[in-house]
Amino acid sequence: MSRTGSTDDGDELLVRLRTLTAQARAQAEVQRSRVELAIALQRGMLPRGLPVADGVRLAVRYAPAYQGLNVGGDWYDAFTIPDGRIGLSIGDVQGHTIEAAAFMGQVQVGLRALASVDSDPGELLARTNELLLSLSSDLFATCTFMRLDPETRLLESARAGHLPCVWATADGRSGITRDEGGPPLGVLSGAVYPVTRYRLDAGGVFVMLTDGVVEGPSMPLDEGLDQVARLAGVAAVARLDADALAAAVIKGAERVGHDDDAAVLVIGHDTLDTHP
Q1: E strands of 43-165, at which residues?
Q2: Residue 195 in this model has a pLDDT that exceeds 90
Q3: Contacts of 211 (CB under 8 A, 6+ apart)
Q4: Is the C-alpha dihedral spanning 267, 270, 272, 276 positive or negative?
Q5: pTM over the 0.70 mark
């Protein structure tokens, strides 16, 4: 083989490498732009503020977690319903794409819009489920929706394939809700979502969360939920406010080694009963 031939082959290889490198950079830039758009969609959909009511304290934390150049689809929401009660939702969209972020927005907007017509948690999830099915998307979402009456402290809850909530009372008792749930939203037409009723005891808390908070390579789901339940019990006894508890729960998410978003919504009551 001549020296000229070897030089030509080497030049051709360099040209190919430069071309492949340029293509890889262009693809990475496109993907980076998609991630930035997905993050902007997420941030734009999360509520700017939280409802305010006597005795009721709400607090949220959100920690986006990136896997490569992907982004998750968790959300939380809290808003005042026309009848004066408070709607609370938290959920997770399947997938880690810009499409998942857009679908998250559709779920959240659908819940808010339909809550103005019928805020019963079970009916609301059923209507939202049918709305999402009508969009003919391949995506689905898990969700918990709660309706809180600030005056009576009655909490009504329905779950769509989502993990349970954590509760704690002022005397230190704590646990995990065991209410019956229905399938994820956008999967099965005609799905039914049973409603379970709780009372937000004075000085007590409920913690709504997504699986990125309690499940990951370093910790199974049951163990993660138990840890949050213990933390909530300690916080209730110590009279920590809702914001401090939310911060502590999201801090604990670092220990599970999660590769997903982590969202927390704490519902607390800050006044102890003065009568039986």
Answers
A1: 56-63, 66-67, 70-71, 74-80, 86-93, 141-149, 154-160
A2: yes
A3: 92, 163, 221, 258, 260
A4: negative
A5: yes
